[in-house]
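ingest -> fold -> write
write: protein_1
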Amino acid sequence: MINTVQKLFLLVFFVGVIIFVGFDLVFAAPRFLTLPFSQNLNVLQGWKYAPGSCVNPGPDPCKHEAIDYDTGVNRPILASADGVARTYSQYQNNYGYGEYVFISHSNGYFTLYAHLNSVSSNIIYTNNPNTSLWTSVRRGGRVGLSGNSGIGNSPAHLHFEARLDNYSTPDRRDPYNIYPINPNPINIYYPPNGSSFSGCGPDYFWTVCPPVTPPPFYTPVTGTISQNTTWTNANSPYVVRGGVTVSPGVTLTVEPGTIIKFDSSASISMSASSTLNATGLLRAKIYFTSFKDDSIGGDTNGDGNATSPAPGDYYGFYFNAGSTGSFDNVVIKYGGNYDCCWNNYYGAIKVLGGNVSVKNSELSKNSSQAVYVTGGSLFIDSSVAKDNVGYGIYANVSNVTSVTVTNTSFSDNTRYDAYLNGPIDFVNSGNIYTGTSTSRGFYINGDLSADQIWNSGIPFVAQSVNLTTGKSLTIKPGVIVKFYANGLIYLNGTSTLNAISTSQNKIHFTSIKDDSIGGDTNGDGNATSPAPGDYYGFYFNAGSTGSFDNVVIKYGGNYDCCWNNYYGAIKVLGGNVSVRNTRIANNTPYGIYRDSGAINVSYSAIYNNTSYGVYNIQSPSINAQNNYWGDPSGPYHPTQNPSGRGDRVSDNVNFRPWLLADPTVGQVGPCPGC
């Protein structure tokens, strides 16, 4: 029998054991942390500041109670273990955590990551200690980017703490457990991690000592996405493997700050009526990149520096007929490959009948082209297309397709900034070129299926542009149009060309080989030079109209011997054309050729055309008064002005009076008595 005293003793004993065990369970080292970055880095300061650098006020100026790692700026900072996280800001004069992340781990410990340059946008911003409100994070998941917030001009680094308090009365612990075995350690006890490490104390917190970087963390994606799905920042990076298909009617949503990496030859194919919504934020962009790209999200494939990303590492996106895609504040790079065995569709984004919108985004370092279009619609606004090995945009269509590009910057794409072939409704405005090489331009070929306006900013390269009946092309001031070899603009019945500008901001029509205006658009350096007849020019057929005002037209006039014999940069074949304040020079054989229809030319300069400045094949006469012909003596005509040394004119050209100098470079009166 156990008496009362024995019972009391046993009760006290077991309570003591429980208290002791409980104390040990909470406070003994749990061996649960990995390093908060993806490669070994030097330690700047250990648990105590080194002698001579003690800065804290109070009785212990060498107190630090944290580890400072030499990260530099914008290195991805990773969660050292699973948990829930919050972020907040702390600034106190010249010190403070700045932007920091605080993580609660399931074993009762907390970790703190301070002086960040930015924090992953999915982490809740709050100072509330209620951990049920915090955001779930995974070991190795990115929580932010390193910086020097809160410490002014001090070297950028990560201030890392392990704690047993929920940001209340600080109870910090040395994760290396070196401090308890040496009461006054200096930096020698915290050398570069993984190099001549002197060891940890018996109760270190790392999974192993010396500590290791976390294994590559990512969420793999394969097969078919058959239900509405959201990809989150907390579970990124995602790695797409093989061909992933989004089923009909399904929506794939990508949260701000999420990173998606594509393995070799991987793709995302959008089925009919499926939707991709990838909407990031200015400070939390969404990234679609190569599995080999360590610059964002770290070394996800875990091979160190063994591989590097390159254009065409993966296929990219397929938007099939009826699908929808929206990209906003997104970066897409290193895509654009294709499967030669079942399609020939190049491009990181392949619009194959779907409707795709790209806003505030970057398309860079893709192979062949950033965007490939065969049908559907493409809308790009306020974005950047740069360093693509090929075209920025490539559209080759057989049915009417809408392509809109506005307020977008193009830079150093190796081929045309946009290649548009077929019946494309092309809307453009506010686009600029910002590269170190010359803009390769917007290449245009095929029928204009709707009224179009060409705006300045990026040169246009015209191949065979056909204005169908009833359509109009308006060319705004400052536009440069370069014609490809044998290029032309062909106007059919009731179509209209309006090229009206100002003397300060002329419109230029010239050869693709002409580097003097708009730079080296054909990208061949000095290998070629422009010459008369480099392209065909303008065809104004019966019923069409054209207006040129403050325009320069040069190096045109050739003809296609196989289907017409019409020479001249401007060919009037039944249309009605007005030309004012325009320079028509260096064309062959004629500057202007009239077969039928009407053309009026005034206050223009017509010179250096190889045969005739104006050639009228039949009556009635062309009204060509008050023009400059290349010489004050006027145009040459064998009977009407045999002493004229300017460009020759044919019969049926009313050229009197003429001007004594080029009116396109200043105000000039007519020749008295001419």
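write: protein_2
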Amino acid sequence: MQKQMYQFIILLCVLFALVSCSTPSPLSQENKTPTNVSSSLPSVAPSIAPSITPTASHVVPFYTPSLSLASPGYSSGTGPTLAPPGYSYAGPTAVPTPAVTSIPTPGFSAIPSAVQQVGNTSVRIYVADDKGNFLDGATVTAEILVTGAGTFPNGQTTMTVTASNGNAIFNGVPQGVQVKYTLSKPGYTTRSLTYSAVTGGSGTSILNDIAFGNPGASAIQTSAPVYPVPSSMPTSVLINPVPTVIPSVPTPIDSTNTPPPTQNAKYFYFSYDDSASTVGLELTKNALNNNSLPNPSYARVYEFLNGENFEHTDLESTGLFGVSMGLWEHQNIKNTNNKIYELGTHITAPYISRETRKNIVLTLIIDVSGSMGDYSAPNNFEISRIYKLELVKYALKLLVNNLKTGDIINVVTFSTYASTKLENYAFNPVNFNPDTDLYIQTINNLFNTGSTNLNEGIDLGYSLASKYYDSQKSNRVLMLTDAYANTGEIDSTKISNRTRVNNTEGIYFSGIGVGQDFNEAFLDKLTEEGKGVYASLVSPTDATRIALERFIPLVNVAARDVQFRIDYPVALDHIQSAAEQVSQVQSQVLPTNFSYNTSQFFLEKFDKIQEADLNNQTFKITISYKNMETGQQVTEIYEKKCSEIFNKQLSNIKDAHTIELLAKLIKGEITAEQSQQDISTNLAGHQSRLFTEYSTFINRWISLKK
């Protein structure tokens, strides 16, 4: 027996030696120093036409870094990477209070006869319908989004005012704090906008004028008009406009390339945000997976749909995109005499890999301020001992697995001041050695200190990005921050204007929000204007997802200034949308970007208003966008008769329906009983991975809410 064991060990050694000799190591002990890479170097472009057949974006890591954890007994803010001798540390910020776990009961205030300065400052909300008429009687609810940033005069973080004479006035609003204003009125679409009030306003003078709609020339329009809903059925459409006092004018689509509406045509334009926009889903899952109620503001159904992988079946190429469509008829649980028709449309972008994507000039802007020494998720026991900056460092070191020869990296950090840490680093995987690599050393040497001068970081980052701009490569700026600017310029409008100016030169801006408490509204503003997307980084799982699975969608755009339009049968009435924005007026729907390796599933609901045979009537989706290389306008059309799509894509549509139920439940648009009735009535017998996951989330939310 002992002899046989020796023979077995010898055999294993021989096999190992043979494998070692035949497989070259990808790593070398040689250190790579930054060198100038000529812009004339050829880039690796996608092969002729990237396949529309989706392939899992799996990257096999050749380098797996370690993740530093705080020792038991450390307090949040001390940070594992303290400043070296000669540097000062600004000290920790307070451990954030857990995210809002329920919708607070609003307080009510009377409409004042004149604007008065109470507490901090005042905000006047102008309210009008799509024709410019005052929408009196509508309620506007203000919600302070930043935990611990103060309260309204009623002592709460929410306050509700009823509009009168075309406006709703809020006194005692904390200045410089993100406040979400939500307008609602029966029969009208609910709309929201986010705004930071500035100091000023007393008597009848006020500096903070914002608007829903356009009620008069004196109002500054910051949001799309409020449109009547053609049905009493509640809508899930929630328009989140760019949070700025100065209107952001969308890039118009060339009307000559958009098919004109036919006589009596019924249609609408819509947007589900950028295809890589998924933060609401990430934060919601993080909360529910840790038995916490998610903040209702996270429940953006279009981001939920963007973030999930639906079955790719029956895809047909329209050019750049692959499209499939299905129609499901089911019971209306609120009116059993009516049927609901749900249209599911799946749009898929081409797939590219690390090898086939263009080379990139990537400028990293990293927040190293004192708050980055806080725990990423202090209320999550499983990951409670991970500091924000350590999580950032872990993700950025993982990122090398998605780099290739010819990629250029710049690194900028910011706290009280901004600083260049690495310039024109040329990545070469053949010579990569984590022990001596300059990029890895740069990331390892980051430490947190000081305040947050975010604007100076953006200035320096764009300066480097412009310096090494290469028209043959993708040029991207990626910022990692908790987005709480407290030093220097903190006006998000001015900061976003800088990203917009640079964007005209082909440098797109994306962001990663760090920690469960990151300033989501602020980062959304920056990336919206920078033509990029943002993701959340709360856990090591997020780091892996961002650095390995989602890196290409984060920085590689397949089509820009994308707009969608659906034409639908005259016998139907459009009653509900899962979109972020929807309108019959094209200019009132902001164009978005569609990233490689992503898809979007659109869920639209209709009611039959005419007794007619639908079989020969058609649904048509028109996709308008600008070619990334030429800038030329392109239009793609997909059209199907109802008879061709009835009961097609049923599994996907039912999955999307379940996902929407969770979002509605979290936002308070439906009750627990209604969600369970819908599942038992319309989804009985349905089985899928997504249905199992989301029905579990629904039951968990109901249990936590009790």
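write: annotation protein_2
The chain has 14 helices and 25 strands.
The chain has three domains: 107-212, 255-352+558-705, 360-555.
pipeline exit 0
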